[in-house]
Design a protein that fits this description.
The chain is α/β, with parallel strands linked by helices. The protein has a domain of 269 residues: Alpha-Beta Barrel (TIM Barrel), CATH 3.20.20.140. The chain is built from 13 helices and 14 strands. It is globular, with a radius of gyration of 21 Å.
């Protein structure tokens, strides 16, 4: 089989702590990596990129079916205000418009270098696109329902939706949304359904409003729920993450060996980390910095997460809470706010850890001989191989 070769100022294989300076990657036409190394003579390289070559990204958290909401939301409203906007605007587009925009944005993500995605779906409007797209997706079929009597009907609906996903050849499983949109019964039932499939995604500690709701039955989100005539979850005096753990224990005894993804983690504490790690044996922590800034001008406690050795992943969230679905912009935001994090580590969060969560690390996540991760060129980097505000990515293969 014919081999091809590309080279760059920096090659981040993610198999080592440091990039290869003036490195090359050889690969077969089908994208399988054959070898990597340092160039003997840069001037003789036919395809040399002034910048970095990195493995394809894994978008750890996206709602691509909400692409029809691009540019329609006000920023800085907090979670309660954001939810009001979702309720008002999410159904403005028909199925055909939604599917068209899903394809446009998945194509853009692919072109920008996203090789796989952990995506949230509330309906089947993205399924046809996903089934034929080169990007691998694992779809989390997210459910809502604040009233206890809704549980049985909601679970019947998501089971039927899962059958549609199965027929389309899409890897999918039911998953709960968050503590503030679900009755305790539905949270437990949907979490159990996800655990049975081996994967679970959960919006966790995204805002202080969420914490106030659970800890003390107070705050903007509590008032929003009550004003809408909705039931609220029980007041526990503890964090919303501990509440989630309690709901898991209601349907299955710990420890949990399944892959559990906790998304956002803005209000995460050391106590919460210890509680999660004590029962979750394959827990991953997704951060979506630009979405958090968009909604409530906050960021997750990255130093705390690093100190505790968490398996961090990076996602874009949706175009209702972001201006783009661009992984490099998310990484640049993290670099600007947490400059102590090395570029190699940021890329592990954006690629290798996501591949591990999806159980695709034998194919994706690093530039390793035998893998087919996709190769991505990042241009406009600094002299040390790090990101700048002008950095942009494009897929090579």
């Amino acid at each position: 089989m014919k081999t091809n070769r590309v080279a760059a100022s920096f090659v981040y294989t993610l198999d080592a702590e440091d990039p290869i300076r003036n490195g090359y990657v050889e690969y077969y036409e089908d994208g399988t990596v054959v070898g990597v190394g340092a160039c003997e003579d840069v001037a003789s390289e036919e395809r040399f990129f002034e910048g970095a070559i990195v493995p394809g990204f894994v978008n750890a958290h996206c709602h691509v079916e909400l692409s029809h909401l691009h540019g329609k939301f006000r920023k800085g409203t907090g979670m309660a205000g954001f939810i009001d906007q979702i309720n008002e605007l999410r159904d403005w587009a028909g199925r055909e418009v939604k599917a068209t925009l899903v394809k446009e944005w998945m194509d853009k993500m692919w072109k920008d270098g996203v090789s796989a995605m952990a995506d949230i779906s509330n309906d089947d409007s993205s399924f046809e696109v996903k089934a034929s797209h080169p990007m691998y997706t694992r779809t989390f079929l997210e459910v809502f329902g604040s009233e206890p009597h809704m549980c049985e009907g909601v679970m019947a609906d998501v089971t039927a939706l899962n059958a549609v996903a199965d027929d389309a050849g899409i890897d999918a499983a039911p998953t709960p949304h968050s503590c503030y949109t679900m009755s305790p019964q539905l949270l437990s039932a949907s979490a159990f359904a996800g655990l049975e499939k081996g994967w679970l995604s959960y919006h966790s500690q995204e805002s202080q409003e969420e914490e106030d709701l659970i800890r003390s039955g107070s705050g903007a989100m509590y008032e929003n729920r009550k004003r809408s005539g909705m039931s609220t979850p029980p007041v526990t005096g503890e964090s919303s993450l501990k509440y989630f753990i309690d709901r898991l224990s209601d349907v299955k005894q710990a420890p949990y060996d399944e892959h559990i993804l906790l998304v956002h983690n803005v209000c995460l504490s050391k106590d919460d980390i210890d509680a999660a790690k004590s029962v979750m044996k394959n827990v991953y922590w997704a951060i979506c910095p630009l979405s958090n800034i968009f909604i409530h001008e906050s960021l997750p406690p990255v130093p705390l997460m690093r100190e505790n050795g968490l398996d961090i992943m990076v996602g874009t969230d949706s175009l209702s809470s972001n201006d783009d679905l661009d992984m490099v912009k998310e990484l640049t935001c993290l670099h600007v706010n947490f400059p102590e994090v090395p570029m190699n580590e940021l890329l592990i969060w954006a690629s290798l850890n996501g591949a591990r969560f999806l159980s695709k690390e034998d194919i994706l996540g690093s530039i390793t001989p035998g893998k087919k991760p996709g190769l991505v060129y990042i241009k406009n980097i600094d002299n040390d191989g790090g990101l700048t505000t002008e950095s942009r990515s494009e897929r090579i293969i």
